[in-house]
Structure formats: C-alpha cells, structure tokens
Amino acid sequence: MASVADEAFYQLGSNLKVPLRLHKNNRQRLCNCLKARDDVKSGSVILLQGGETQCRYSSDRELLFRQESYFHWAFGVLEPDVFGTIDVDTGKAELFFPKLHPDYAVWMGKLEDKDHFKAKYEVDDCHWVCEMPRVLFDKNPSEVLTLRGKNTDSDTIHPEATFDGIEKFKVNNTSLFPEMSECRVFKSAEEIEVLRHANKISSEAHRELMRRIEPGMHEFQMESIFHDYCYRNGGMRWLAYTGICACGPSGAVLHYGHAGAANNQPIRDGDLCLFDLGAEYYCYTSDITTTFPANGKFTEKQKVIYNAVLDANRSVFKACKPGVSWLEMHYLAERTILTHLKNNGIIVGDLDDMMDCRFGAVFMPHGLGHFLGIDVHDVAGYPKGGTERILKPGLKSLRTTRALDAGMVITIEPGCYFIESQLDAAFANPKHAKFMVKERIDEYRGSGGVRIEDTVTITETGIENLTDVPRTVEEIEKFMADARKGQ
C-alpha cells in the first residue's frame, strides 16, 4: 500500500494502482442497502472478522495468507487476524489489528502503530483487537450485524465474527449476508478495472503457453510457465484456483490437476491440450480456458469438436445482455454443440427430443459458467427468494440460473468431452442410446475434450470480453506457427 496526493492505493511493482476508495465505495453501497431493510435498526454496526493465520496441520509451518473474500471486499486489508466495524448510519469504518509483542520485530520486521494502519487503509480509526470489546461497548450499537449464511457453490456456512464478550450485545446474523453477497454480484467501475488487469495478464500467460509448448514436455511445466508469467509480469502471486493443464485423454477430466492427477502427464505429439488457468491480482480473479493442439496443427477430427464449442461460445456472446436468463444461455450452448455433432454424423435424431431428455449433458455435464470476482466461483448464484437450482443432468451443475444484469461478471465456458463413464452410461440408457452413432463416437474415445472459457462483464447493451487470446482454428494455428518462426 502507498499514497499519492493523499490517496491510498495498492500496487505491486509497476502494475495497476488500485485506489482504496474502491473499498470505501463498497462499504457505502452496503450501508445503503442495509438502511433500506425493515429489519435493520438505526444505530446498527457491522462486525466483520478477517482471515486467520493458519498452519499446515499440526506443524508450525504457516501457510501463505490470503485474505477472506468478504473482508477484502469491505476493507482491502492484507494482514491476517484483523477485525473491522462499519457504522451503518454513517459509513464510518474502523479496523482492529492484533497487538504483537515487541519480540515479534525480530521475525516480522518493524511493528507498525495504529496510525500507520489508519493511513494505509484509509479508514476512520484503528485500534488493537484487545481494545475491541471496550470500543464496541462505547459505540452502544442497537444491534451488531454479523455475517452468517450459506455459500450456494460450496454449500458451506460462512462463520460469523465472534470474540469474548459478544454475548453482551444484541446480534443480528440474518440481515447482513444476503445484502453483502448481492453487493458483490454487481461490480463497481473500480472493481472491473482490477478484473481487467487480472484477465489481461492471464490472457498474455495463455499466449505464452501457446508459444512455448512442445511435445515431450510435461503438463506441470505448462502450469509453471503460466504462474511464473503472471507473477513476474503482473504482480499476481496467487493462482485463482488449482490449475488444469490437461493433454490428450486428461482433457475429459473436468477438474484434472487435483492431488491425485497433478498435471503430471507427458504431452504427446497430436494431443489436444486443455489449459484452464487463471491468476488473481489484489484478490480479484481471472478464469480462462484455451484448447489447442500441442504441435500447433488441428486434425480434422479435432476441428469438428473445437468449432462446435467455439460456435456455442460465440452464440452466447451474441445473445448476452441485461434481462437474458442464464438458464436459456446454457440451453443455447448445449443445442449449438448438439447441432454440430449431428451435422458431422456423430449423433442422429431430433434436437428437441435430445434437449427434452437432457442428452446434451452426456457431452457437457457442467454448467455454462459462473459469477467471478474476489472468488473465482463468486457468490450469490442462488440468493434466497431467487431462482432455484434445477436437479437434472447438466443443469444441476449450473452455478446460477439468474437473469443477467449490467455490472455482473460471469464466465462463458461451454465444453464438449468424451468421458468414458458418461458414454458408457448413455449407451446403456435407451433414451440416449438411440441418438448415438457408436462407430463415430468410438473414434473420439480417448481424445479428451474441448472447453473454451472467457470472462465477460455484462454492460447496458451486451458484454465486454475481458479475455484476449487467439480463438478460431486459423488464429491459433497462425499464432503458434509464427511463434515457432520467432515472430
């Protein structure tokens, strides 16, 4: 953090300066929403608890700290073990930092005072955590609003702030979560600027993979190149999620890259490579998937599947605008892919019948995309009182079915995969088997899959695509050929 002309900002290296007013504006948006609720009393104070220092299992090996997302949205604080309050009526913000023993200076460097943190984060006041019960008591809040609610992606309950003595206050733990989550759905202009940076650098890193890939390398080397590029050129220390560097058959594993399949396979000549990688800057994330041939040249069979997915991706691009149902966008992508498969003799039959029996989920078992922001799978996909999750194949994996609106940031990531278990189950299901041309589908077994993912923000009239990578077959082949020529 630094300041120029009395305005504090975050910056790593020479990368994007993020003004701390971003968080002040977020807090004001939140207070305005809370003041409009009948169940929030005048004189209420929000109490938020930041992320805590964590060690690896029972050791003293501290894990690299990354701030809890709601707390970052409100304050932008980089340090662990911090609390924050916001006066709903006035927007006044105060932070509470742990008071460290002087001996910590040996290990942690200079121990800053409260005035340092007040200036660093542009809040109204700062205190030590040990002072929090007294400071809060002096405020005499009508209610203390704490953050508790279910994340509809993880299905886990967000733990509310707590401290010794909180039982002396009247606590309201139901009003804050829905409002704060909904505020996070709609990004401010300052937030979108940070997301642009994260996606710009991640896009450049995907281009770097296209330049440097060679058959004989290993998948983990691609992951390493991506992370190095983002950190070295964009100040992005964190990847936004576990990277997927899947080549050949691994491309049919939707969350490849996990500990049991850790991007550890060799890349073969002729493999189609699916790289789902994103990094984050100042906790704001990116999410991009590119699919391209390891040797720089698509086969005719690969072109069929790639063009089907690209057409689905671009069809959704053209249709997205405020008021459009995300569920309908999923249907559009699914129908587009099925149309290509039918036109190429891989499946047969009536498209409406395929849609009715959820046949498309055989080839695209995941949802079309997800909100993105401080979390790569951002919050409030299914807010209380909103649209419900549809428990049918493919649709149950949709992370939202809401209507789009300006200010939302969402990924568009259709895919088509040849997953052995999915294909075997479909052949065993008479409702699906009648559509499948076995000899053609068998040609694609073991080939993996294709996913094309872009991050977009919804504007008043359509979308702004934050992703910038070669997408058509011709663009990819030319880019990779030029890279091999040193152009």
Description:
- By secondary structure, the protein is of the alpha+beta class.
- It contains 15 helices and 22 strands.
- The protein has helices at residues 21-35, 69-75, 105-108, 114-121, 132-139, 176-185, 189-212, 219-234, 300-319, 326-343, 351-356, 420-427, 430-433, 438-444, 473-484; strands at 2-4, 7-10, 18-19, 45-49, 83-87, 93-97, 125-128, 144-145, 149-151, 156-158, 171-172, 238-239, 244-247, 272-277, 279-281, 284-285, 288-293, 409-412, 415-417, 449-451, 454-458, 463-465.
- The strands form seven sheets. It has a six-stranded mixed beta sheet with strand order 7-6-5-4-8-11, covered by helices on one side.
- A hairpin with a 2-residue loop joins strand 1 (2-4) and strand 2 (7-10).
- Helix 1 packs across helix 2 and helix 7 (189-212) crosses helix 8 (219-234).
- The longest helix has 24 residues, at 189-212.
- The model has no long low-confidence stretch (mean pLDDT 97).
**Radius of gyration over all CA atoms, rounded:** 25 Å
Q: How much helicity do the residues have?
A: 25-40%
Mean pLDDT: 97
Low-confidence stretches: none
Major beta sheet, specifics?
6 strands, mixed
Count of alpha and pi helical runs: 15
Given helix and strand content, the structural type is alpha+beta
Summarize the entry for a quick read:
With 487 residues, this protein is α+β, with helices and mostly antiparallel strands. It is 34% helix and 16% strand. A hairpin with a 2-residue loop joins strand 15 (279-281) and strand 16 (284-285).
